[in-house]
Amino acid sequence: MEQNKRKTGNYGEELACRFLKNLGYEIIEQNYQFGHGEIDIIAMDKETLVFVEVKYRQNLEYGPPELSITKTKQNQIRKTAESYLYKNDIKDQQCRIDFIAILHLKDSKPQINHIFNAF
Fold it and tell me: What's the domain count of the chain?
């Protein structure tokens, strides 16, 4: 079950990476982990360092992916992003956190919603 969940998550992240690359982003890193936190994608959008959270769903059993990011998850992502900046001695860098929600219902193309500066 856990491996299947990871495989599905990886597929969603690959869709998100392709989407971002098509927009001209440069992918710096995927699945950055620090402590209990993880950032799915770290990328450059021109001069801005972007931390991207990806949520991929194949059904609406638990609602749309846009509703999946709780305050706790937001805080965890912020802390993990701060650790990335600290660990890599990055200062005076414009940054933001984006959210990519992907809904891929059976027999349809994936619907991608890119939310800039999500939180």
Answer: 1
